Amino acid sequence: MLEFTDYTERSELLKQQVKKAFSDAGKELVLRKNDSGAIRLVFAGQYSAGKSSILKMLTGRDDIEIGEGITTQQANTYIWNGIEVIDTPGIHTELRPDHDEISYEAISSADMLVFVVTNELFDSYIADHFRKLAIDKDKAGEMILVVNKMARAADGNSQSQKDIIRNDLCKVLSPYTPEQLRLSFLDAESYLDSIVERDSDAELADELVARSGYDDFIRTLDQFVKSKNITSKLTTDLYIIDEQLEKSIMELQPKSVDSDIDALEESLMQQRHLLIEARGRMQQEVKDIYTSAASQIRELGLDSANLLVEGCEQEKVEEELSVYIRKADDIIEKCQNEAAEIIDARLNEMGERLEVIENSEFSKKLKSSLSGKFDSLPEGIKRILTNAGPGFQKAGQAVLNNAYKAGTQGGLKLTNFSGSTIHQMVLKVGHSIGYKFKPWQAIKLTKGIAIGGQVLSALGVGFTVFMQIKADHDEERVREDLRTNRQNIRSQFNAAANELEDYSRQYIRDNVNKPLEASIVTIDENIQEIRDSRTNRSQLCRTFEALQKECRHLIQDIHSVNNDN
What we know:
The protein has helices spanning 3-24, 51-59, 98-107, 124-136, 159-173, 188-197, 202-212, 214-228, 232-252, 259-305, 314-358, 361-372, 379-388, 398-403, 422-426, 439-442, 475-532, 539-563, and strands at 40-45, 76-80, 83-87, 112-118, 143-148, 184-185, 449-451, 454-456.
């Protein structure tokens, strides 16, 4: 099974369990309105290419119509393991020109786009539509290209046949490579046949599955979801569920016999709120910086492409193109410096706020009181305090009472919840600049720009000829070449912008999520330790606590998948 569908299943199951628990308690679980939050996987491309067969292969649904000709008349949405899987009509069906509009409307809201062609590959019409999506609409970064019906190819779905098709595709996909578009080879009908054969001939069924390319396609989908951090959409509802469970638990949670233990829980809750708030703020601010930079790079791509016009001069184009590439490089370096500065500033602010909590009159009194009665505290509370200050297990002695007064170096710190303060753990983030814009990423001219049958090369190689319309050139051919190469240049700037946005997601995971996640988890464990010490909790309260624990584990699991990239 797809890894991310496992998480959607778990999310849906948890959501239903929480709804039932709330209903039993006379409460209502309130989630987002008019937005399921589900991942949207849209299938588009050539009509009669087997999109519906692939969808039937994935979902196992018998009500999906398949066959020769046009079987899908409108965009059909199926809920599969919590994912919205959308089957669109084929592009460029002369019998139904309105199908293009239906398909593009579904495509515009896709998280993932699976563009399907047959083993016969692109005709000129499908190629134009593909380039419209990949380049004009900048969807290449969200796309998986699937070659289906491989059983009809000369050598079937063999490696040698894949290599032949991959080479043929390079001509159509340029300036993108098959790898950039996550090229997959399938024969969905073989997989569907394997289901029929499974009971009577398991060996044949296994052979048909292998022939179908199903496993490779599933791996490609999983890798795509991880690289784009699409599973993070699943955590949106989970955060809402966690918040509502927390409110309900606080309403049901009995007070301790010891008011200091209640006060310790309150201190931990303050710290947790501070960290959650800071994490969300940093995530959004850093994301905004990278999104703005990517938008600027796409604008540079438009301006660069517009340098290629009839009668343009070599020296001027070469000079201005170099300027645009340097601008893109500067934009990327600037945005990464800004991101590092934002994180550094926010962590400093968070550290200062934690120190305010630490040095408050409330904390001073609480530390003094807890240090004086350590031996009589429940074992779980002792463990929390032992981790919070070295030697605290011997507290109660006069000398140690003095040591744990507020401000004493090495003493009990309520904010020292994981063995070191937030300052010591994450105050300084390395200003890692891990992504650089290279000229050859912007302008991939492996064979140069072809104008009127002649070839141009750029930047470091030098132009060999240039695009003056001359008597011996076909003017229409020159204009077509100019148009194509404007697309090529624009698409490469778009590709660089997409890669920068991909990098930003990894940057946020490494420099925002990871440093704070361990601290939040430790706080959660300490809060639960306090709650477990109260033996008079109701069964409903325990049910909510168990659901909250599962919710937080699921969020951590989703984050860990994205962090494994």
